[in-house]
Amino acid sequence: MGFFFAQRFILSPAILCIILFTSPSLASQPNLTPTPRPSAYEVLEEYNFPVGLLPKGVIDYYLDPLTGNFSASFGGSCSFSLEGSYQLKYQSTIKGYISKGKLATLEGVSVKLLFLWVNIVEVQRNGDNLGFSVGIAGADFPIDNFEECPQCGCGLNCSDEQLEEVRTNPSVSSY
């Protein structure tokens, strides 16, 4: 009788393990494969903005989805001209608050107006336009102008020589 009890005691944990690991409801574990984090450009699209608001080269970003607090980091400062009209400058880190169709309290992005650099403090999507505010003034542009990400140093019209210069001198400017 003692031998039978010992065998039964030894087999019970083994049987219990087999039951636990083969039972679909008990053995199922959450997927341990991490989901890839979306890029900063994909996050912009989730908030109804075109990717071209950010130049190429974001190396990291932070987003608090509850407050909308965000920051995006580049390898250094970034500046370029668009279509020969506007000169833009991005500091190595930009930050602000994002919500559906609105970037507010922006820091780190400026545009040259005449001879002065002014900070862009807000971007708002209005249908097929983006409105940019520098505080006391603003301007609207078609959203189609922002489908492509500009390149630091040369904007949207980069030649191979300009791209090579940007690669060797990441803080190069186009002006």
TrEMBL record:
Keyword presence, Signal: yes
Keyword Signal part of the UniProt annotation: yes
SUPFAM superfamilies attached to this UniProt entry: At5g01610-like (SSF141562)
UniProt-listed InterPro entries: At5g01610-like (IPR036758), DUF538 (IPR007493)
Signal peptide: 1-27
Pfam families in alphabetical order: DUF538
Sorted UniProt keywords: Signal
UniProt organism field: Carpinus fangiana
This protein's name: DUF538 domain-containing protein
